[in-house]
Amino acid sequence: MTKENWELKLKLFGSLGFSEDDTLSVFRRMPPALAVSARKIKEVIEVLHRRVNTDTSFIVYHPSVLLSSVENSLKPRLVIFSQLKSKNLLRRKTSLATICKLPKMNFIKKGMLFLNLLNLEKCHFH
Questions:
Q1: Coil, helix or strand for 2?
Q2: Which residues of 14-36 are buried (b: 16+ CB within 10 A; e: fewer)?
Q3: Residue 29: enclosing H or E segment and its boundaries?
Q4: CA triplet 95, 55, 101: central angle to 5 degrees?
Q5: Taking each helix axis from N to C terminus, what angle separates 38-52 and 75-86, rounded to the nearest 10 degrees?
Q6: pTM of the model
Q7: What is the pLDDT of residues 24-74, one digit of tens each?
Q8: What is the DSSP string of 82-121?
Q9: Cα(first)–Cα(last) distance of the chain, in Å?
């Protein structure tokens, strides 16, 4: 990576509320995040902040989320997480990080169970 690109990444993360130490931590924990485009970094952070009100510390501790597909992975997981949380259907304290890190097939299996739970709840209360 050129010095110019490195400085652009630092500036980008700084404009999104990250300190220089936070930015360095993200890249130390997940070096492939250096290759993620500025557009995608902004999109991931915006979606996380808007949908589940995360702050920069979530990205610092879970930088792998920057590598996730926003449309195919992150948004569907956030929808299910928000629905389950709002309806108090999480059996134990399931974190957003756990939902985001589930392998795709596990998420699909569990997602189907979650959707069934939501449908059952609708049937019982309506």
A1: coil
A2: eebebeeebbebbbeebeebeee
A3: helix 20-29
A4: 35
A5: 10
A6: 0.77
A7: 999 999 999 989 999 999 999 999 988 888 889 999 999 999 999 999 888
A8: HHHHHTT--SS---HHHHHHS-HHHHHHHHHHHHHHHHHH
A9: 57
